[in-house]
Amino acid sequence: MDRRGPQALSEFPLAVQESGQGPPLLLLSGQANSHDWWTGIRSRFESRFRVITFDYRGTGGSRGPVADWSTALFASDAARVLAGRSSFVYGTSMGGRVAQFLAAHHPSLVSRLVLACTSPGGVHAFERSNEIRQRLATARRDTLRELFYTPAWSGHSHLFGDPTMSPPEARAHLRASNRHDAWDVLPRIEAPTLILHGTDDLMVPSANAPLLAGRIPDATLHLHEGGRHGFFDEFADDLTPVITAFLEGRP
Question: Which residues span the domain enclosing 202?
Answer without folding.
Answer: 2-247
